[in-house]
TrEMBL record:
Keywords for this protein: Membrane, Transmembrane, Transmembrane helix
Organism: Bizionia sediminis
Residues in Glycosyltransferase subfamily 4-like N-terminal domain copies: 17-191
Domain of life: Bacteria
Taxonomic classification: Bacteria, Pseudomonadati, Bacteroidota, Flavobacteriia, Flavobacteriales
Protein name: Glycosyltransferase family 4 protein
Pfam family, one: Glyco_trans_1_4
Coiled coil spans: none
TM spans (from-to): 84-104
Length: 388
């Protein structure tokens, strides 16, 4: 008989982004490995901060998607800069989760996504009392990451979040971390806890490689993803030397309007904004560009952008501009070029050298083969399955 497992997350398709994709791959992957999988998630709202039109006005929805039962619950959606409104958004989802726990039979094994810390806390508190096996999937080290991003200050509220973080880790039977830094952080607090390095490997058929655009004078540089504060794409637009590049941008987020306004105000600059497109559509077009850039405004301890693994599988050379463990991966597997986070002078100098670096289909094939060998989703899932 198939073992039942519940995944609780704040992000799930049709929402876009790494978090939604990661949990979707985990859910469908476990289902294909003969688990009976159900997912609890809010009504789709990310990154817009408002409920998607198709789900508006609903308090609850349960559907079967790719043989995974998906329960979508009400929340007060907001991506406001007002911290109280964002906190209420998390609390509202937590209240819906409590209602769900009361009226539904909960499987013996539950995977909880963290962050958000408050949502994870609700799950760990309620489900520990139900004596379930709790697996905490830690994708970012909050509140530490929030402090590094400037979202938090070391005050009383921060100390409360640290206590919640410790509580969540302490209640978990198994902790999954997306980076070695996350695992080290958890073991520093609770050395006796079981941990497992669970990378954000994608799970799609590697595409046939395309010839990138050929331009004798310029390379095509592309960014695709969230246009948020942490990524710093607006700062990138204002700091790049466009002598050697054409810069293409895909995505949406808090900085979108600033970026569009900058482009409109500087029509002489070779920047093209394509808007937000689906993941599948991105896979069709990204291979046409010479190099993709993966930036972070500041180095964030524990963070490893999932774009690294996705772009490697697509066979796209990467220009990594974020520091940390992601930088180590780029160097270790020879996936592209690394520039110190925040050093725009060094970034422009590196880009200048790329015009004569010989970016060709051979390099792309090697990157793709490296990804298939070292970033194997199903191999990793098979190892995780033994611990569930």
């Amino acid at each position: 008989m198939a073992k039942s497992i519940l995944i609780i997350t704040s992000y799930y398709p049709p929402e876009s982004g790494a978090a939604a994709n990661r949990i979707f791959e985990l859910a469908t992957g476990l289902q294909k490995h003969h688990f009976r999988v159900s997912v609890v998630t809010p009504m789709p709202n990310y990154p817009k901060g408002s409920i998607f039109k198709a789900y508006s006005g609903k308090l609850k929805q349960t559907v079967l998607e790719q043989n995974v039962t998906v329960h979508r619950l009400w929340l007060y959606a907001s991506n406001s800069k007002n911290k109280l409104l964002r906190l209420w958004a998390m609390i509202s989802y937590s209240l819906s989760l409590i209602w769900f726990f009361i009226w539904h039979k909960i499987p013996d094994t539950v995977i909880v996504q963290s962050p958000p810390l408050v949502v994870a806390f609700t799950c760990m508190l309620c489900l520990r009392r139900k004596k379930r096996k709790l697996i905490l999937n830690v994708s970012d080290l909050w509140p530490m990451a929030g402090l590094e991003l400037g979202a938090f200050k070391k005050n009383f509220s921060y100390k409360i979040l640290e206590k919640i973080e410790r509580f969540n880790y302490n209640q978990a039977d198994l902790l999954l971390g997306q980076s070695h830094e996350i695992i080290a952080h958890i073991r520093g607090m609770f050395p006796e806890k079981k941990t497992f390095l669970y990378r954000n490997y994608p799970n799609f058929k590697p595409p046939i490689l395309l010839d990138s655009s050929k331009n004798a004078n310029k390379i095509t540089l592309v960014y695709a993803g969230l246009l948020g504060v942490a990524q710093g794409i607006y700062k990138l637009c204002t700091s790049l030397d466009y002598t050697h590049i054409v810069f293409h941008i895909y995505g949406a987020g808090a900085e979108k309007e600033s970026i569009v306004q900058f482009i409109n105000s500087n029509p002489q600059l070779p920047i093209v904004y394509h808007g937000e497109v689906s993941r599948n559509a991105l896979h069709q077009v990204l291979g046409r560009y010479d190099v993709t850039i993966i930036p972070l405004l500041n180095r964030i301890y524990g963070s490893v952008p999932s774009k690294i693994f996705e772009y490697a599988r697509l066979g796209i050379p990467m220009l990594y501009f974020g520091g940390g463990e992601g930088e180590t991966l780029i160097k270790q597997y020879e996936l592209g070029w690394v520039v110190e986070a925040g050093n725009y002078q060094a970034l422009n100098q590196t880009i200048k050298t790329l015009t004569t670096a010989g970016i060709d289909s051979k390099n792309r094939l090697i990157i793709q083969q490296t990804a298939q060998k070292n970033f194997d989703f199903n191999k990793q899932l098979s190892q995780l399955k033994k611990l569930l």
